[in-house]
Amino acid sequence: MGWWITNETGTSFAADGDLMWGDSVADMMDETLGQIMQEFQRSWNRNPSLRELIAGLRFSASTADITP
């Protein structure tokens, strides 16, 4: 398990990146995305769009101590 530099598009090992991501948090995100997709399927009979996921992350992050 490790960490790598990424950028806002999610490119792994980005030469121009100044953001960090790693295996452990990627695994957590995969699990959480699976749960969110199941809930959208149950409630709306479809998967969320990327725009909805980003909006939802911004909504939830607004209540946490996260640097913009």
UniProtKB/TrEMBL annotation:
This is Uncharacterized protein. It comes from Mycobacterium kyorinense.
